[in-house]
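During the no-cost extension, the postdoctoral fellow (Dr. R.K.) reprocessed legacy sequence entries with the updated structure-token encoder. One reprocessed record is reproduced below for audit purposes.
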Amino acid sequence: MILMGWGGSNGLSGVALVAIPLHSSYILSAQVIDVVLLNSGMFFYTGPVLLLLTTIFEWVMGNFFPMMVCGIFAVFWLSFGVLQLPSWGLAAAYSSTGNATEGAASVGYNAAIAIYLLVWGFALFTFFIFTLKTNVVFAGIFGSVTTASFILSGAYWRVAVGDYSLAMKLQKAGGALLFVVAILGWYITVVMMAAEMRVTTKLPVGDLSHLWPRSDVEMAEMDKEE
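Re-encoded structure tokens follow.
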């Protein structure tokens, strides 16, 4: 079962394209290489633009769940991108001297981001539950990004308490899961494009819909009774 049409493949390509540099930023920053600023444009003008357009397309077509999925990812990338912009001075606000580096290492700043990721983890977990009615690839995307959100939240909590060794390990683990999200996102994008272009080779996605009762039949019967 493929949940979205051509609009969905457009949005999921945005998820995959942003997840790759985000994964790189967590892995490389653990090696003291800061690449987040150079990739900040991806958080605003790649993922969110594609996802917002897809949200509109799916809304017009009456596809509620894909609309919610693309909308939630769009605002996630936008809000996360804001955290990376030095011009907003968010990290500097946590320093008594106005130093961004000092603020980024403060307890308050890291605890705030940890809570931010924790809240997103619960939101993404809600979507993961519903993807269990679609296919293995979608469930894998949401299962991985949910777990990554919780793990990265833990990494920021450890930074807040000064446990940098464990924080680095959690950061690498979270980054690895984001790489899985990127690979699965790009794979399902290819599957959707192949289906839309009538490519004869059918790539597997692991249909899960047959494991659940058919609600469309039940709704049709209810309409007849009315």
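The chain has a mean pLDDT of 78. Residues 11 and 53 are 8 Å apart (CA to CA). The remaining legacy entries will be reprocessed before the final report is submitted.
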